[in-house]
Design a protein that fits this description.
This protein has 183 residues and is of the alpha+beta class. It is built from four helices and nine strands. The strands form three sheets. A four-stranded antiparallel β-sheet has the order 4-1-7-8. A three-stranded antiparallel β-sheet has the order 5-6-9. The protein is globular, with a radius of gyration of 23 Å.
């Protein structure tokens, strides 16, 4: 009896490849949402400097206010432990819990810069397909006290849906960073 194993293996591989392509192309909305990512950059307001260390940025979309900031952010999305949208009287705000390094930097900058502002920038995606990126300065909260608990709260220049997508993207990045740290 003669069995042609080679022909069987090719047919088997073609069928296996087709089923894998079918499984990979069918993504649920939840899996697409897990792929959304957002960036976060927190800069400190600084006086104008003739060197290349500072730049003017517009805060707000309706009536932008120009402020000078330090180009180097002191907190990024890599320092985010958790982000959430918090309901407030008459609206909402974004609350960001930072990791140890971010908490230390936020405490240091907030205690040394009373009366200045933090300029907060984000790049985020609105649709799960990820075709449209939004780049926006979300706000510039004034520093009124030392922030020692590592929680940065601010009212963003964004609607609720945009804020939810920013928070979702930040939490996805935070999970990836935590997963990379724990090996």
């Amino acid at each position: 009896m003669l069995i042609c194993g080679f022909r069987f293996n090719i047919i088997f591989l073609i069928g296996l490849g087709a089923s894998l392509v079918g499984l990979c192309s069918c993504q649920s909305p939840e899996s697409k949402q897990r792929k959304l990512q957002s960036t976060l950059r927190v800069h400190l307001e600084n006086p104008y400097d003739r060197t290349e260390r500072t730049q003017k940025v517009p805060i707000g979309r309706a009536e932008p206010v120009m402020i000078n900031i330090d180009k180097m952010p002191f907190v990024t999305e890599e320092n985010v432990k958790q982000a959430k949208v918090v309901e407030t009287v008459g609206g909402f705000m974004i609350s960001i819990q930072l990791d140890k390094h971010g908490t230390m930097m936020l405490e240091q900058y907030s205690s040394a810069s009373h009366g200045k502002r933090f300029a907060i920038f984000s790049q985020f995606v609105m649709d799960p397909g990820g075709k449209t990126n939004f780049l926006r300065w979300l706000g510039a909260p004034k520093i009124s006290a030392r922030i020692g608990d590592g929680i940065l709260n601010f009212t963003p220049d964004a609607d609720r849906e945009e804020a939810l997508n920013i928070v979702l993207g930040l939490n996805n990045v935070a999970r990836k960073v935590q997963k990379a740290i724990t090996w």
